[in-house]
Amino acid sequence: MASEDVMIKIESVNKSFGNIKALDNLNLDIYRGELLGIIGPNGAGKTTTIRLTCCVLKPDSGDIVVDGSSIHDDPITIKSKIGYLPEEPNLYERFKARDLLRYFAELYGVPKNQIEPRIEELLELVGMTHRSEDRINTFSKGLRQRISVARALIHDPEIIIFDEPTMGLDPATAASIRNFIRQLKGKKTIILCTHYMEEADLLCDRVAILNKGRVGDVGTPDYLKSKIHGDVILTVKTDSKREPTTIKDQITQFESVGTVKFADGIFSITLKHRNEIAAIVDVFGSHVVSVNTQEPTLNDVFIHSVK
Ligand SMILES: Nc1ncnc2c1ncn2[C@@H]1O[C@H](COP(=O)(O)OP(=O)(O)O)[C@@H](O)[C@H]1O
Ligand SMILES: [Mg+2]
């Protein structure tokens, strides 16, 4: 991609806390308009990366350039362009939901005539219109997270950063938070830090794997999955209980085939690509009961990558 398409450029960033090296010469480009996932185990450096990008922390060395501004020169401009949902949002407990949003709208300099419509729009987006006159201290964790999402979006930022947005939420609330993110996709530049691989796989255009303060692989979920051994797992259920040696011998002849296993009438075959699937299934003739192919998951990639 051309350099003008890079919205955030993280260049040779180092950050230590005492003798803990949280970020170790980190380099990463985030393109304008993409949804980039940063995945990695606890302690990988995800939150530190985000806090540096949002100018909450300073690096020991290196630079982060956000839409042309360096964190060293222009943190105020950078902050105005980013909406940040922290890992543990700190809300003002005694505020009513609506007043909290109004407070942040004023803080971020949203033009006066736009504040109320913006609040309505966001309350609607996060499904909180009916709770807008209630105080934060009456909210469950899920409702707090919804209002925190609205708060992060109040100044209509170009860049939105979600740090573990669904951690600790019930499945239904987590799904609705993912849905808000999906609605923003394509309209904003988004970073999503998560240790849930399925979440990254579902939502992200590209994923960067972070481990011990360094970026390993970066690419689309499909690209990352295609890089690991056994691109496809083909399972064929047969009605045949007989010794499958002849079938097995024939299947192993195919160029795409890795390993072939047989148990309880089911063949499990790892394939390097999908081009020969039809021909392989033909070998079974009329003994086929069902056929299934399975992709490796991002979790497989992750385990492979951080080993
Ligand atoms: N304020 C801090 N003080 C001391 N150590 C910290 C601080 N913030 C982060 N760390 C350490 O830096 C490393 C990276 O942490 P973090 O960026 O929070 O990782 P992640 O978000 O991927 O779980 C961890 O070892 C963590 O303990
Ligand atoms: Mg974190």
UniProtKB/TrEMBL annotation:
Residues 8-237 form the ABC transporter domain. Keywords: ATP-binding, Hydrolase, Nucleotide-binding, Transport. It is an enzyme of class 3 (hydrolase). The keyword Nucleotide-binding applies. Its EC number is 3.6.3.30. SUPFAM superfamilies: P-loop containing nucleoside triphosphate hydrolases. Belongs to the ABC transporter superfamily. PANTHER family: ABC TRANSPORTER ATP-BINDING PROTEIN, ABC TRANSPORTER ATP-BINDING PROTEIN NATA. This is Fe(3+)-transporting ATPase. It comes from Methanobacterium lacus (strain AL-21).
